[in-house]
Design a protein that fits this description.
Elements lengths: L3 H10 L1 H25 L4 H8 L6 E4 L10 E2 L8 H12 L4 E9 L10 E10 L8 E9 L1 H5 L8 H23 L12 E5 L12 H20 L3 E5 L6 H11 L13 H6 L15 E2 L2 E4 L16 E6 L8 E6 H5 L3 H14 L5 H10 L3 H18 L7 H9 L1
Parallel strand pairs: 3-6, 6-7
Antiparallel strand pairs: 1-9, 2-8, 3-4, 4-5, 7-11, 9-10, 10-11
Length: 407
């Protein structure tokens, strides 16, 4: 039981700590926002020269920085109603294929005498044709005890194994999407776009385990296949805690006069959304975005670089709601370099109109993949029948089996 009076008293005891943190945080926002605005007066060559020999400054702006002489590129389109927004989105998506895959998982619990888990992944592909029609399918994989109990390093638990299997299935479906739409230019199609729910840039703490290395390898393979097939993918991060722009500003300051305090509590999306002394956030209106930046984050450059050492993935922050922090879009660098970025980001905007701030394709895939409490009970019931019919030496607890029978 949580005692409300003790909670209230404990919070009041820490009031000064909260006040001090809030005051310092606002000072940091003012300082970093001012420096971020000043970055708009630079060229990408100027920034690279200022970074100097620093190998992993976090971010390096592309030539888009010079397009509007600002890190922020306004959308420049306004609507009087949601109906007008939907008409714009329909035009942006007409005859364009979008795709997303998402998954859910059932972890082993004490109801089962041996660990057994399940992963379900669903995908949604919409060609947005005038005739209508879409594909929504799912697949389910059982992870048997032998796979869950395999641990050659002492740092891999069942939840890690299940999460990785889910990730594998999601990326497998995305790879199939990329292969299906290879050659879209020759067919005269509009550029297709695949969505991944999360970052394309997987940071791993060192020393990394074999399963962590497999995460990185699978994502790098996906990004490279996107480049090979010329089919864009977007890693959509709704609440990003990345600090690549903040890191860049720290590097530029360190290579300059080093007069500013380093913030450990400020991240990019927060900085772009916060209201500063200039009287507003940097991303002011729905649909505004930041210039494309190459991601050169410490710990990523070894894996997420091509044969020439150039980064494979970059990012842009996009304002997808009227009042929330911007979403982060991880995009393979080839998309920007092929001149497809504006069209791809318009596709993201259009999907977010349909999903009210979140890509409709991801939202639909998530709804199709979700596993409910009732689904878990059915899973236990099926396991019980399976064990009995096959005369397998494992059991489902009587309490869990009773709940299934009673409902």
């Amino acid at each position: 039981m949580l005692y409300q009076n003790l909670l209230t008293s404990a919070l009041h005891e820490q009031r000064e700590s909260f006040t001090k943190f809030e005051r310092e945080w606002h000072d940091d926002v003012e300082d970093y926002a001012r420096r971020l605005r000043l970055l708009g007066g630079e060229t990408c060559a100027d920034v690279r020269a200022s970074v100097g020999a620093t190998s992993a400054p976090g971010a390096l702006p592309s030539a888009e920085l010079e397009r509007g002489k600002s890190l922020v590129l306004p959308f420049g389109v306004e609507w009087r109603s949601h109906e007008e927004a939907r008409r714009w989105a329909v035009d942006a998506l007409q005859e364009r294929v979008t795709f997303a895959a998402d998954g859910s998982q059932l972890l082993p619990g004490r109801e089962i005498s041996l660990p057994v888990a399940a992963v379900q992944v669903a995908w949604f592909e919409n060609p947005h044709t005038r005739e209508g029609g879409y594909t929504k399918q799912a697949r389910l994989a059982i992870i048997p005890p032998g796979d869950l109990l395999e641990d050659t390093e002492g740092r891999v638990n069942a939840e890690t194994v299940v999460s990785f299997r889910r990730f594998q299935l999601e990326t497998e479906e995305l790879r199939r999407f990329l292969e299906r739409h290879r050659g879209w230019r020759e067919r005269g199609a509009r550029v297709p776009v695949g969505f991944f729910d999360g970052t394309l840039l997987i940071s791993i703490a060192l020393p990394k385990t074999k399963i962590q290395a497999r995460y990185v390898d699978a994502m790098v393979e996906l990004v490279k296949l996107s480049r090979e097939t010329e089919v864009p993918i977007v890693g959509f991060v709704d609440q990003s805690y990345a600090r690549d722009l903040v890191s860049l500003l720290d590097v530029l300051d360190r290579n300059g006069n080093g007069a500013h305090r380093r913030s450990r509590s400020l991240y990019d999306a927060q900085l772009l959304h916060a209201v500063d002394v200039e009287g507003g956030s940097l991303l002011k209106a729905w649909g505004d975005r930041t210039a494309f930046c190459y991601c050169v984050r410490h710990g990523l450059t070894e894996s997420f670089s091509d044969d020439k050492g150039e980064p494979l993935v970059g990012f842009s922050y996009l304002q997808t709601t009227g009042d929330g922090a911007p979403a982060r879009l991880d995009v393979p660098t080839w998309v920007y370099e092929a001149g497809l970025l504006d069209e791809v980001i318009d596709t993201v905007r259009a999907e977010c109109v349909g999903g009210l701030g979140y890509p409709y394709a991801i939202e639909t895939a998530d709804a199709a993949a979700v596993i409910t409490v009732r689904d878990r009970e059915q899973f236990l019931h099926a396991l019980q029948d399976f064990a009995r019919d096959g005369n397998f030496n494992f059991r489902v607890s009587r309490k869990a089996a009773s709940k299934v029978r009673r409902r």
